[in-house]
Amino acid sequence: MAPNEASKKARVDTLSSVAPDDVEVVSITESGHQLLAHIKMMNHLRSEALKAQEDHQAKVSHLQEEKAIEVDHLSKEKAIEIKALQEVLKKEEQTSMKLKAILALEEERRKKVEVKIAKLKEQVLR
């Protein structure tokens, strides 16, 4: 027989020798003890739930901090990469401008040479 059953049987044995009014008091007392036990269990479960919620919130906060650090690190890397690419682009634009200037001078020189050749041909033909 389980310990709880033995205590109930002992109570029943003792209750049989108790007056009916006393039985109600004992029943109410037992109900009060059960109610108190349920309240204690609910408080314990509530405490566990709050602890779990706090643990999860701490974990979420930690993960958010990690992601924020990662995003910050990646944005700094990208900023460095962008700056390097901008510098390369600037150098390429400068080189392109220099080449355009050289090309313009060469075209001007070629035109002058063509004009000289045309003048020399004219002199030769005269």
What does this structure look like?
There is one protein chain. The chain has 126 residues and is an all-alpha fold. It has one domain (19-125). Helix content is 95%, strand content 0%. The protein contains 2 helices and no strands. It has helices spanning 3-16, 20-125.
Specify the oligomeric state: single chain
Percent range of helical residues = over 70%
Radius of gyration, in Å, reads 49 Å
Range of strand content: under 5%
Helix-strand string: HH
How far apart are the termini? 142 Å
Which residues sit in consecutive blocks of at least 5 with pLDDT less than 50? 6-16
How many domains? 1
Task: Let me know the number of strands.
Answer: 0
Total number of helices: 2
List the topology elements.
Blueprint: H1 3-16, H2 20-125
Can you tag this structure with a few keywords?
126 residues, mainly alpha, 2 helices
Structure at a glance:
The protein is mainly alpha-helical and 126 residues long. It contains two helices and no strands.
